[in-house]
Amino acid sequence: MPPTRSLPHLSASGVNQFIGCRLQWYYERILQLPKPFISPALVFGSLFHRLVAETLVVGRTPDLEAIRAQWTQQLEHDTVRFDTKDDPAEYPALAQRMLDAYLAEVQHYQIECFEKAFLVDLGLQAPLVGALDLIERTPDGGVLIVEIKTARASYSDQKLGHHLQAALYSLAAEELYGQDAVLCIDLVTKTRQPKAFRYFLDHDPIGRQQTRALLAAVEEDMLTGPIYPNKEDNFRCPNCPYNTPELCQSWHG
Ligand code: SF4
């Protein structure tokens, strides 16, 4: 029996990472090895979230110069590894086009809160933690919980139906706001001409039961299951900070 690991909490990103590659999860979240670099997608995603917050909460839409300044500041703070064909200087203009598309193509209700951190007890050994991006209040008093995403393309029905983070946040929303809270994903594409979509997710009690069961199984495996790499067609490997001769490449159990 492998040793039990300590698990202070569960998160959507942690569960996703564990399912995608247990070894990467172990290096990052159990051994807490430093990361020599982070991916542009991560840094760009947080820049876009900040721009949306500034616009919707503060009521000030940043111009290109302000976006460039934020981007430069971010790159000075983080060590980001870009692909050779990737030009870091193009990101601020892309962010501005995406913000324009988001504001033009998605109608918001009354903004109640941006970035609401949560910790919910789902009856497992560790609580589920995370942050709800945006909470809106509809005219009839309903609660709309919005997850803001950026991606290279729009989502298919299949991707929406299997969106793990949305499924986990649906559990959190039920605990925090009751069964009537509606969850949706606002998606903005990182394309030359960005498009924005609001996808409403169905209230699905059976799906929630399945997600609870999945989470319990994953937690059990995180605590005592075997750890091994997953290199099979894994999109994570090229940008994995642990893809080095000292770590994953020489892993032997
Ligand atoms: S390089 Fe790939 S297999 Fe190795 S730890 Fe990273 S994601 Fe996992």
Outline the structure in words:
This protein is an alpha/beta fold and 253 residues long. It has a single domain, classed as Lambda Exonuclease, Chain A (Alpha-Beta Complex). It has eight helices and six strands. Strands 1, 2, 3, 4, 5 and 6 form a six-stranded mixed β-sheet that branches. The longest helix is centred in the C-terminal third of the chain and has 20 residues. The two termini are 14 Å apart. The mean pLDDT is 93. The site of iron/sulfur cluster has 13 residues, from helix 2.
Fill in the CATH topology: Lambda Exonuclease, Chain A
Please state the average pLDDT score: 93
Which outline best applies?
globular
**So how many helices?**
8
Instruction: Count the domains.
Output: 1
Ions and ligands: iron/sulfur cluster
Q: How much is the radius of gyration in Å?
A: 19 Å
Structural class: alpha/beta
The CATH class designation is: Alpha Beta
- Biggest sheet features: 6 strands, mixed
In the predicted model, the low-confidence regions spanning at least 5 consecutive residues are none
Give the SSE order as H and E letters: EHHHHHEEEHHEEH
